[in-house]
Specification:
This is Protein Atg16l2. The protein contains eight helices and 30 strands. The protein is an alpha+beta fold and 618 residues long.
């Protein structure tokens, strides 16, 4: 960039160039006039001289030449004086005509030069006026340049200040990154220690169980050996043998009580004697039969002839939900923010999922949360958790582009539902335990057959899916394009679209499947009546603000209230029938509440936030 004196020097050179051109033009024109004016002056002198001679030579008519003149001519002319006046007259006339012609040409040239001079003077005036205008423009531009230079100076000062602030922020960010890396390393070390401690605890527990089992087996073996030393007579009646086969537990109890066996054996020996090969069996043979039955029970995994496994547990019916008023328990449950929470059907089992890829199961006992189990293997941040209708399985959506299925009580994942190409944001069971629905940021909604871990249907949508809920034959999905879409499981297309203002963050379906609660980023909750497919209520509150794109809101079990958490850590509860704000709870949350859950019995509420806290409300 040129210095401040560059434009001034350029303007000075430009002015000198114009003055130099004007001086050159003046010299050129002056040279022409310098040749013309002396010639014209000489011509005027000659003309004046000729005029005087003409006056002398040409007298007036009828005039007589004076004697003096005549004498003069005679003296001057000599003997040819008679011929001199005529010759001179002719000569002077010719010269006079030539001079007149030259004078006329000169006069014409003078006129032309005068006209040219006038034109040049006019052009000179125009150029001088143009020069004045340009000088005024130059002065204006110089003033503007001065102002721009001042602005540039101010901007440079501001840029220097911003650069200094940026360097300070970058240094601070470097310090924070170093602190973050240190904390991450500490968290990793703590996690490794926790895993090692859990592994040691599990190994110790397994060792204790194994020792206890060995001691129990040794005790049983000793009792069986003591009982096997005696021989008892067993009748050949098939009813008795069948009874022994059908009731192995009673037979084992019989073997475990030597005194009763002795008395019964004495009674048998008091009966008439029969051949041992046909009518008697040793007690060791009975023990072998019982042990075979027990081994068969262990292989099958359930009791022989017992009642079949209960498929669904009974869900308690909530007549009237109780509004939460105070906190019963507060835990730092995860290593990072908690994204999802869900109650089991029996209201005593709770699942939480967080960004640390872990799912913790809790038991609600005496107003406190007791750790029940930790499920690992998600491989990514947990975004949604759900129990099946029986409460025996847990389904979780992860950022690892898959959904994971666990069985309660087992540490390893049972199934992995893979097929999405982006983060899975929602995973819900249908009304049966063998079907599920997932929604993802890859703009698809998938239906799954959990018995075969097979995707039975893929629904392509135009926008990100943030949450899904399921009815009898209905799938409802909330999307990033501010729309709620309805799908029929028996049909290929979308049956209905309801637009809402703001990106949909969560959906909650009432137990009677007649009302739908949606939460969106316009900081409102909306109740949609599914019988007429329109928005029945819109809930707002001063201070309520949706904290993220995955903020979850729920109905109470009796559908009388709507519950949601805000960005400032408060819980807001609205009355569904009146639309009024029933209460707002402020407690231990110091960060945005990501999700809430209301147990099926209506007695407890759990909320989770971005600061790792899980709060139990009563």
């Amino acid at each position: 960039m040129a210095g401040p004196g560059a434009p001034a020097g350029l303007a000075a050179r430009w002015k000198r160039h114009i003055v130099r051109q004007l001086r050159q033009r003046d010299r050129t024109q002056k040279a022409l006039f310098l040749e013309l004016v002396p010639a014209y002056n000489r011509l005027l002198e000659k003309a004046e001289l000729l005029a005087r001679f003409s006056e002398k030579i040409q007298p007036e008519p009828n005039d007589v030449t004076p004697a003096s003149h005549q004498g003069l001519w005679e003296e001057e002319s000599g003997p040819d004086s008679d011929q001199v006046p005529g010759t001179l007259r002719v000569k002077w006339q010719e010269e006079e005509e030539g001079l007149r012609l030259v004078c006329g040409e000169m006069a014409y040239q003078v006129v032309e030069k005068s006209a040219a001079l006038g034109a040049l003077e006019a052009e000179l005036e125009q150029r001088q006026s143009r020069l004045a205008e340009l000088e005024a423009r130059v002065a204006q531009l110089q003033e503007e340049r001065t102002q721009q230079a001042q602005r540039v100076h101010v901007r440079r000062a501001r840029n220097a200040a911003q650069r200094a602030a940026y360097e300070a922020l970058r240094a601070h960010a470097g310090v924070q990154e170093a602190a973050l890396r240190r904390l991450e390393e500490e968290a990793r070390e703590l996690l490794e220690r926790l895993v090692q401690r859990k592994a040691r605890a599990a190994a110790e527990r397994n060792l204790r169980n194994e020792r206890r089992e060995r001691a129990k087996q040794a005790r049983v073996s000793q009792e069986l050996k003591k009982a096997a030393k005696r021989t008892v007579s067993i009748s050949e009646s098939p009813s008795i043998l069948g009874y022994a086969v059908r009731e192995p537990a009673k037979t084992l109890a019989l073997a475990a009580e030597p005194e009763s066996l002795e008395s019964e054996a004495g009674e048998k020996w008091r009966r008439p004697f029969r051949s041992a090969s046909a009518t008697s069996l040793t007690l060791s043979r009975c023990v072998d039969v019982v042990k075979g039955l027990l081994d068969f029970k262990k292989r099958r995994g359930h009791s022989v002839g017992g009642a079949p496994e209960q498929r669904y547990q009974s869900i308690p019916v909530c007549v009237a939900a109780r509004l939460p008023t105070w906190t019963q328990d507060v835990l730092d449950a995860h290593l990072s923010e908690v994204n999802a929470v869900c109650f089991g059907p029996n209201s005593s089992l709770l699942a939480t999922g967080g960004a640390d890829s872990l799912i913790h199961l809790w038991n609600v006992v005496g107003g406190h949360l007791k750790a029940h189990q930790t499920l690992e293997g998600g491989g990514g941040s947990i975004t949604s958790v759900d129990f099946d209708p029986s409460g025996s399985q847990v389904l979780a959506a992860t950022y690892n582009r898959a959904a994971q299925l666990w069985k309660v009580g087992e540490a390893q994942s049972k199934e992995t539902l893979s097929g999405h190409t982006d983060k899975v944001t929602a995973a819900k069971f249908k009304l049966t335990r063998h079907e599920a629905v997932t929604g993802s940021r890859d703009r698809t909604v998938k239906e799954w057959d959990l018995g075969r871990a097979y995707c039975s249907r893929t629904i392509n949508v135009l926008s990100y899916c943030n949450d899904v809920v399921c009815g009898d034959h209905l799938i409802i999905s909330g999307h990033n394009d501010q729309k709620i879409r309805f799908w029929d499981s028996r049909g290929p297309r979308c049956t209905q679209v309801i637009p809402v203002q703001g990106r949909v963050t969560s959906l909650s379906l009432s137990h009677d499947q007649l009302h739908l609660l949606s939460c969106s980023r316009d900081d409102t909750l909306k109740v949609i009546d599914l019988r007429v497919s329109n928005i029945r209520q819109v809930f707002r509150a001063e201070g309520f603000k949706c904290g993220s794109d995955w903020t979850k809101a729920v109905f109470s079990p009796d559908r009388c209230y709507a519950l949601a958490g805000s960005w400032d850590g408060a819980l807001y509860i609205w009355d569904v029938d009146t639309g009024k704000l029933e209460s707002s709870l402020r407690g231990p949350h110091c960060a945005a509440v990501n999700a809430v859950a209301w147990c099926y019995s209506g007695t407890h509420v759990v909320s989770v936030d971005q600061a790792r806290k899980v709060v139990l409300w009563h």
